[in-house]
Amino acid sequence: MKTAQTIDGVRKLLAEARQAGRSIGFVPTMGALHEGHWSLIDQARRECDDVVVSIFVNPLQFSPAEDFDRYPETLDADLAGCEERVADVVFCPSVREMYGEEAGLLTRVHVSRLADRLCGQSRQNHFDGVCTVVAKLFGIVGPNRAFFGEKDFQQLLIVRQMVADLSIPVEIVACPTCREADGLAISSRNRFLSPEQRKAATSFYESLSGAVESVRAGRRDAAQLTASIRHQIETSGVDRIDYVEIVDATNLEPLPEIDKPARICVAAHFGETRLIDNVAVDAP
Ligand code: PAF
Fold first, then answer.
1. Do the beta carbons of residue 85 and residue 41 sit within 8 Å?
2. Which residues line ligand 1 (CB under 6 A)?
3. The sheet that has 240-248: what strands, in order across it?
4. How far apart are CA 128 and CA 111, in angstroms?
5. Over 80: is that where the pLDDT of 284 sits?
6. What are the tens digits of pLDDT across the range 32-61?
7. What's domain 188-278's architecture?
């Protein structure tokens, strides 16, 4: 496995693979790698000739009030894990390498409508930061396929829209959410939960699974379903619910009734830690 800290360096490492016509699979990450990331890397390993992982905590996607400064950094363990998973190249640039001197980057990528909903309501400019760095990483790495987890379902749809709109020649591959034994979606932020918050957070998946069962049993009304999810999360000891919404799985528009493929999406704060989750539901 090779590592590169510079844009030129990673381009040089990948030139040979590209010339030889090998397919490049790319897993962009912010480090603090866990089972969710390993499953993306494993899928890239199975489907592509060469696997590139990027590790970059992107300041552009955090607002000043958010947890950029305490975002976990575990570079040595991340590199060891990537080696074990047989990644070919790990790109871990500095902020200066990616964005130059202060105010060096004047461009932002904004995907309207999709980025303004759900998490976009409370995390202003978050998805502009994500799209800007992902577009830049795609320009640097030039992957054939890029692997994103369905846990960040809104991010997945936005990145798909961005590559379609900007004709970026990469296939976006959606990978299933990895969960703990009790159903909690695996996230780098779970490590910040106290034992009580960790217990309360299980209400997320329990309430979503309950809703999936209700839909299977024939319940369609979004207001009733979201009310019962809210009730279950609220009684678990959550600090604040950000949203519980049922949306069209293709465009994130709210659905009053589940009459087509939909996603039930939730976000809430457990202490200082904000968690998100979602599940797929469909009309019978
Ligand atoms: O999902 C993430 O970890 C980040 O948003 C991403 C895609 C690596 C961009 O910084």
1. yes
2. 28-30, 58, 61, 130, 133-134, 152, 155
3. 240-248, 262-270, 273-281
4. 7
5. no
6. 999 999 999 999 999 999 999 999 999 999
7. 2-Layer Sandwich (3.30)
Say which CATH class 2-175 falls into: alpha beta
Structure tokens at 37: 């990331």
| pLDDT tens-digit series, residues 118-142 | 999 999 999 999 999 999 999 999 9
- What is the pTM for the complete model shown? 0.97
% of the chain at pLDDT higher than 70:
99
Closest ligand 1 atom to 152 CA: 1
Q: Which residues are catalytic?
A: 37
Q: Which long-range contacts (CB under 8 A, 24 or more apart) does 38-44 make?
A: 38/81, 38/85, 39/149, 39/175, 39/176, 39/178, 40/147, 40/148, 40/149, 40/175, 41/82, 41/85, 41/87, 41/147, 42/85, 43/147, 43/173, 43/175, 44/145, 44/147
Q: For residue 21, how far is its CA from the centre of ligand 1 (angstroms)?
A: 27
Q: Where are the domains of the chain?
A: 2-175, 188-278
